[in-house]
Amino acid sequence: MSYYVYETRTFEETYKGVPMTLKLTFEKEPLPLEDTFDNDIDNIQQLYHDIDSGELVYFCAVMKAYINGVEFGWDSLGACLYKSFDEFVNEEDGYFPDMKQCAMEYAYNNALETCKVLKESPA
Questions:
Q1: Using one digit for the tens of pLDDT, what is the confidence trace for 2-48?
Q2: Cβ count near 66 (within 10 Å)
C-alpha cells in the first residue's frame, strides 16, 4: 500500500564504518485524529482546523536505510503531530535520532546476514 508523500529528506550517515543513505519520508497518516487523540484532552476539531490552515502537520514518518543503493533497513512512526517537518527533525530528545539509529542498526544487521547467506551458498 502506498501513501501520499508530503516531503522526502536524504541524509548521509556512517554506522560501524559502513556508509549509508537514509531517506526520511513524511507520508499521509491514514489514522484519523479521533483514533489517536483524546477529545477530552485535545480539541480534535481545533486540531483539524490547525492542520487545514497549515499551523500543524499530521503525518507518518518513514525512515529507510540504504547500503550501496539497496534498502536494508527501515523504521517508522505514525500519528506525528508537529508544527512543521523541521520541528520533528530538529526536536531535542525527539524521535528522529532514534529512528535513524534503529534504521541503521536494522540495515547493518540485515546486510551482515545477507553476506553470510551469500558466502555460505554454493556458487
A1: 578 999 999 999 999 999 999 999 999 999 999 998 877 778 999 99
A2: 18
Contacts of 14 (CB under 8 A, 6+ apart): 20
E strand residue ranges, the chain: 5-15, 18-28, 57-67, 70-82
DSSP H or E stretch at residue 69: none
Rounded to 5 degrees, φ, ψ at 5 are -100, 120
In a domain, 122, yes or no: no
CA distance 50 to 107: 37
Could you list the residue range(s) of the whole structural domain that residue 57 is in? 5-117
Structural domain total, the chain: 1
Over the stretch 75-94, which tens digit does the pLDDT of each residue have? 999 999 999 999 999 998 99
